[in-house]
Amino acid sequence: MGVGLAQSLAQADLFVLLVDINDDVLRRAKRQIGRNTRLSSLQTLETEFDAGEILARITLTTDYRTLESADFVIENVTEKWPIKEAVYKKLDSLCPPRTVFAANTSVIPVTRIASATSRPAKIIGMHFMNPAPLKRTVEVIRGRNTSPETIAEARSLLNRLGKECVVVNDSPGFVTNRVLMPTINEAIFVVHERIASVEETDRLFRECFGHKMGPLETADLIGLDTVLLSIEALYESFSDSKYRPCPLLRQMVEAGLLGRKSGAGFYCY
């Protein structure tokens, strides 16, 4: 997701600082951005993107101190609160007061994220869909203390990317993942209980409802580890058994079958 956002921002003629945990991850990101840029040129016939020019606008680094000059930070850290909390505390200590922090989170409430900083009015949720360069609408989440000015800045940035947004109020999972994650989890239960195969389940959603992807294909795209973390967070937040993770989902994550990112999940890639 971070790679896709870096590409989208650079394609909009913005200068991007892409920070990650080690140089190997950054080298892979650079290769992926080059491949994805060429693919975007083929898919977006009215615009031709030059991979070299896009990469020239992206600084890849492991040094958080580069963010001292950032106007707008979009965070894409794993859905584990202790890790996110540590990242926001570090960002808050480095970035100037003007900097907006946008959480590209799946389920963690924006108000909780804001509590890890000294700038709650400058914290907003921006839930991009995957793949970020191709999805035109973003779910924007208003935390309890998010200011109207911060919402306006987020809208302005999205407009520059050629994207629209729907602004919703803060809640675990917001709208999209509060609905999507239980749907995926229930589809996994259907397979777990041998009611239908993986292929049959996805085919019903594609052909009966007109979905571009079935729920299990979608899970592979998101990453089964992210799906599990998200459904666990919803279960913890609401204490409602309807969010109980399917045992098959947990087993697949433990086996390293994470979907596209690992080469195999419900399908092989």
Helix content: 40-55%
Count structural domains.
Answer: 2
Q: What is the overall number of helices? A: 11
Beta percentage is 5-15%
CATH superfamily of the largest domain: NAD(P)-binding Rossmann-like Domain
Radius of gyration: 19 Å
Low-confidence stretches: none
Specify the CATH class of the largest domain: Alpha Beta
Kindly state the number of beta strands: 7
Mean pLDDT: 94
Helix-strand string:
HEHHEEHEHEEHEHHHHH
Q: What's the story with the biggest beta sheet?
A: 5 strands, mixed
Strand order of the largest sheet: 3-4-5-6-7
Give the CATH topology of the largest domain: Rossmann fold
The helix-and-strand class reads alpha/beta
Shape: globular
Distance between the termini: 18 Å
> What would CATH call the architecture of the largest domain?
3-Layer(aba) Sandwich
Short characterization:
By secondary structure, this protein is α/β, with parallel strands linked by helices.
How would you portray this structure in words?
- The radius of gyration is 19 Å and the shape is globular.
- It has a 5-stranded mixed beta sheet. A two-stranded parallel ribbon has the order 1-2.
- The mean pLDDT is 94.
- It starts with a helix and ends in a 15-residue tail after the last helix.
- α7 crosses α9.
- With 269 residues, the chain is an alpha/beta fold.
- It has 11 helices and 7 strands.
- The relative contact order is 0.09.
- The chain folds into 2 domains: 2-169, NAD(P)-binding Rossmann-like Domain (Rossmann fold), CATH 3.40.50; 176-254, N-(1-d-carboxylethyl)-l-norvaline Dehydrogenase, domain 2.
- It has helices at residues 2-11, 23-43, 51-56, 81-94, 110-114, 148-160, 176-192, 198-209, 215-222, 224-238, 247-254, and strands spanning 16-19, 58-61, 72-75, 100-103, 123-127, 137-142, 164-169.
